[in-house]
């Protein structure tokens, strides 16, 4: 799964507005790249080079502030990317350091968001799939002039529709909301207050009335999997043994069936 990395911009390259400081930083990285690895002066020069390029790291970190992560944490992450860029830079390739450092630092920041900001831990494959689906959705919305269908996204990414549905389902773990979240301007009620208790018979009647027609929209295999899972209380592995398919296939079919049910029901009974 390929994750697009932001390309250097003119603004990024002009982050260090002091011309002399920028020239000095450029000279330091060139000198460091040319210095033999066993030179005793290299450690001190490396420290000076990293310090000289810190404004670039801070600038890129602030670009991603306001997205749920502390700015200090983003700056620390950007500094890790900067250090990697300094240590790996090869001046012989003919690329200026900023053109190499910017995607390296931005990539480190994006990995931080991918690995650290999920409310519920999910496999990295699903994390990367969520990012790919999000980017595909933005691109296709602009290209098609409408919200893309699951089939559109699957074709664009070269994956199956089941994989797209799996990625959308996995994305639900990215953010969670506390039941203590206040509602309204006066804060007199909380989100948890809106959840029905076991004595809410009206909600149960409504659920049963809408569930039947929604289940009828599923194919026979999907209906059987839903029945075995939620009425038979079987695990996905047990269902796989009964039907004769893999547990992963059961998981995908179950996800696809639940998405269909939500589309035909006014209440979300499967959270």
Helix/strand order, N-terminal first: HHHHHHHHHEEHHHH
CATH topology of the largest domain, by name, is Four Helix Bundle (Hemerythrin (Met), subunit A)
List low-pLDDT spans: 1-17, 267-271
- Count of individual beta strands: 2
> Into how many domains do the coordinates divide?
3
Distance between the termini: 28 Å
Strand numbers in spatial order across the main sheet: 1-2
Net shape: elongated
| Beta-strand fraction estimate | under 5%
Judged by helices, strands and strand pairing, the structural class is: mainly alpha
Largest sheet report: 2 strands, antiparallel
What is the level 1 CATH name of the largest domain?
Mainly Alpha
Number of helices: 13
Q: Which architecture of the largest domain per CATH?
A: Up-down Bundle
Helix content: 55-70%
Mean pLDDT equals 75
Account of the 3D structure:
Strands 1-2 form a two-stranded antiparallel sheet. It is built from 13 helices and two strands; from the N terminus they run αααααααααββαααα. It is mainly α and 271 residues long. A hairpin with a 5-residue loop joins strand 1 and strand 2. The chain has three domains: 10-116, Four Helix Bundle (Hemerythrin (Met), subunit A) (Up-down Bundle), CATH 1.20.120.1810; 124-173, Arc Repressor Mutant, subunit A (Orthogonal Bundle), CATH 1.10.10.10; 199-264, Orthogonal Bundle (Arc Repressor Mutant, subunit A), CATH 1.10.10.
């Amino acid at each position: 799964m390929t994750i697009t990395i932001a390309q250097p911009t003119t603004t990024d390259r002009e982050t260090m507005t002091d011309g002399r400081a920028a020239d000095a930083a450029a000279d330091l990285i060139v000198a460091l790249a040319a210095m033999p690895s066993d030179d005793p002066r290299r450690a001190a020069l490396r420290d000076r080079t990293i310090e000289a390029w810190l404004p670039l790291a801070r600038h890129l970190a602030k670009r991603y502030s306001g997205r749920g992560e502390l700015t200090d944490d983003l700056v620390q992450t950007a500094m890790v990317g900067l250090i990697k860029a300094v240590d790996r830079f090869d001046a012989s390739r003919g690329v200026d350091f900023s053109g190499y450092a910017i995607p390296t630092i931005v990539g480190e920041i994006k990995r931080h968001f991918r690995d650290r900001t999920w409310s519920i831990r999910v496999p990295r494959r699903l994390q990367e799939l969520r990012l790919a689906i999000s980017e595909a959705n933005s691109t296709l919305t602009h290209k098609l002039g409408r919200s893309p269908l699951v089939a559109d996204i699957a074709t664009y990414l070269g994956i199956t529709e089941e994989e797209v549905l799996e990625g959308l389902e996995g994305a639900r773990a990215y953010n969670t909301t506390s039941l203590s979240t206040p509602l309204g301007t006066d804060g007199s009620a909380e989100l948890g207050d809106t959840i029905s208790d076991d004595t809410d018979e009206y909600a149960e009647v409504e659920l049963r009335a809408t569930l039947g027609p929604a289940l009828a929209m599923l194919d026979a295999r999907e209906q059987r999997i839903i029945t075995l899972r939620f009425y038979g209380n079987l695990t996905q592995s047990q269902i796989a043994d009964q039907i004769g398919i893999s547990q992963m296939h059961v998981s995908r079919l179950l996800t696809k069936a639940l998405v269909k049910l939500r589309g035909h029901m006014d209440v979300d009974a499967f959270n």
